[in-house]
């Protein structure tokens, strides 16, 4: 049984809508806040969003049922996603998912009887360089195996502190939903922003002196829209910093060797 939307949550929903020139642009984060407050998208949450935005409940419901991150059934404390898209699947994702279904005694999109873990198979998380990848409350857990996956869910269920392999300490699903609604929890700087495997290409480019085409040359025929010079420069400085950090922390020996071998040939 879910209680009604509280006055405090209603006020926060209004504050989200007020962030945007067109209030209905705030619907997605508003739905995340509903999930944070109520554990799922409820009829009361839909009505509240519709009321604040001046649109129909059917329109809100249409959005809430379109995106898979919005849940109509209660989610456990930890939403555990296993990528079973092509690369992760062949690297072990299918095996991990099958092992977890058996270990947790749940099917896809189902929650354990203790209410701790909801298991779901996910499509590509854009983290293929660390396949097979899992996510807990949308934080990456890289390079998993069936054994590490079982240990992970056991740790979560026992209340042990778990840290993402590329991010912060894992909070609860409801807490994560609040962050997605735009209310920071102060953990954004915990953990590395990018891992060495994601920066290998950048490292090779820097070793060889490769640079992106000059912006005056347009999109180079690749259909990539030009970005403001300030944004490009900001991204370049950020990438440079990460590459330098990665070079210090973990020089990618296999890639460097491959690049050197190619040079020799
Ligand atoms: S296929 Fe799993 S992250 Fe891309």
Structural account:
- Residues 210-219, 236-252 have a biased composition (Basic and acidic residues).
- [2Fe-2S] cluster binds at residues 83, 88, 124, 128.
- Belongs to the complex I 24 kDa subunit family.
- Its cofactor is [2Fe-2S] cluster.
- Residues 210-265 are annotated as: Disordered.
- The structure is a single chain.
- The chain has 265 residues and is an alpha+beta fold.
- The protein folds into 3 domains: 7-64, Arc Repressor Mutant, subunit A; 78-180, Glutaredoxin (3-Layer(aba) Sandwich); 196-264, no CATH class.
- It is built from 10 helices and 5 strands; from the N terminus they run ααααβαββββααααα.
- It has helices at residues 7-17, 27-38, 43-53, 57-64, 86-104, 146-158, 173-180, 200-208, 229-249, 253-264; strands spanning 78-83, 110-111, 117-122, 134-136, 139-141.
- A 5-stranded mixed β-sheet has the order 2-3-1-4-5.
- A hairpin with a 2-residue loop joins strand 4 (134-136) and strand 5.
- Helix 1 crosses helix 3 (43-53) and helix 3 packs across helix 4 (57-64).
- It is globular.
- Residues 83, 85-88, 124-125, 127-128, 131, 133 line the site of FE2/S2 (inorganic) cluster (FES).
- The site of FE2/S2 (inorganic) cluster (FES) has 11 residues, from helix 5.
């Amino acid at each position: 049984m879910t209680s009604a939307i509280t006055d405090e949550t209603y006020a926060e929903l209004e504050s989200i809508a007020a962030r945007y020139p067109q209030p209905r642009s705030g619907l997605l984060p508003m739905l995340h806040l509903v999930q944070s407050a109520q554990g799922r998208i409820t009829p009361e949450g839909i009505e509240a969003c519709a009321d604040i935005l001046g649109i129909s409940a059917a329109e809100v419901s249409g959005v809430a049922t379109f995106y898979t991150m919005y849940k109509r059934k209660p989610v456990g404390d930890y939403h555990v996603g296993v990528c079973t898209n092509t690369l992760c699947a062949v690297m072990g994702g299918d095996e991990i998912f099958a092992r977890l279904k058996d270990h947790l005694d749940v099917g896809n999109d189902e929650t354990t009887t203790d209410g701790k873990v909801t298991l779901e198979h996910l499509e590509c998380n854009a983290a293929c360089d660390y396949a097979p990848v899992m996510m807990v409350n949308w934080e990456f857990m890289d390079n998993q195996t069936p054994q590490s996956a079982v240990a992970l869910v056991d740790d979560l269920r026992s209340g042990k502190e778990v840290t993402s392999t590329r991010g912060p300490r894992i909070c609860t699903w409801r807490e994560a939903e609040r962050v997605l609604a735009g209310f920071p929890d102060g953990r954004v700087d915990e953990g590395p922003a990018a891992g060495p495997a994601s920066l290998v290409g950048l490292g090779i480019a820097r070793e060889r002196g490769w640079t992106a085409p000059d912006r005056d040359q347009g999109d180079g025929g690749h259909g990539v829209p030009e970005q403001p010079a300030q944004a490009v420069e900001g991204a370049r400085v950020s990438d440079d910093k990460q590459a330098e950090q990665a070079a210090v922390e973990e020089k990618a020996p296999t890639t460097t060797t491959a690049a050197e071998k190619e040079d020799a040939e």
